[in-house]
Design a protein that fits this description.
Nucleotidyltransferase, domain 5; metal-binding; manganese; hydrolase
Length: about 200
């Protein structure tokens, strides 16, 4: 059973990201502040949910949250910053988008940098423990999946509609066959046996 609150502060924002381990596309982060009476029987860590359940949850979260923000860190910036910094930057930008200033921030994982003067706590597997982080994980994942399906139409041979840019065997095979696209992260090892891919 997910808990609603960690800090005791009413305006507690949960934040999470999706797409850190992908070879292509953006890292997408989200931040959510939920009301103290929020509940939904489906809500869980987005990785535990089917796509259908995530799609069902997204409008419910957006409608019932006190505030939410979603930000995209595209592959060029991921390459520039490194993927961990890109994740933290994305979470910060999502928090900045909230139309209510949170009193406390809970973060999925174990790495974060203070945002303004707001106190925070990192929580390993937080998306399976707290509702606001789980809600942020659902938003980050659904927005990212939607984006990957859109760019799939430009480059269908990589099958991003299905693999969402993750390093599946099929995705790596397509990179081997067709090379990298502008959506691929140049700082990532796209093919295991190559130290550097000619771009």
């Amino acid at each position: 059973m997910l808990k609603l609150n960690f800090s005791g502060h009413q305006l507690e924002a949960g934040t999470d990201e999706a797409g850190r381990g992908c070879l292509s596309g953006p890292v997408v982060a989200a931040a959510v502040i939920l009301p103290d009476d929020f509940q939904h029987e489906l809500l869980n860590d987005s990785k535990q949910l089917s796509e259908k359940k995530r799609q069902k949850l997204r409008p419910y979260i957006e409608e019932h949250a006190l505030a939410f923000g979603v930000s995209f860190i595209h592959q060029e910036e991921v390459d520039e910053l490194n993927v961990l910094q890109a994740s933290i930057t994305g979470m910060h930008r999502s928090i900045q988008q909230l139309n209510i200033q949170p009193e406390f921030i809970i973060v999925d994982g174990n790495k974060f940098k203070p945002h303004e003067e707001i106190p925070h706590q990192t929580i390993v597997k937080g998306d399976a423990k707290f509702m606001s982080i789980a809600a942020a994980s659902v938003l980050a994942k659904t927005y990212r999946d939607e984006y990957m399906e859109k760019i799939h139409q430009e480059f269908p041979q990589y099958n991003w509609k299905k693999n969402k840019g993750y390093p599946t065997k099929e995705h790596r095979e397509a990179i081997r066959q067709f090379g990298a696209t502008p959506y691929h992260r140049k700082s990532f090892k796209l093919l295991p046996e190559q130290l550097k891919l000619e771009l």
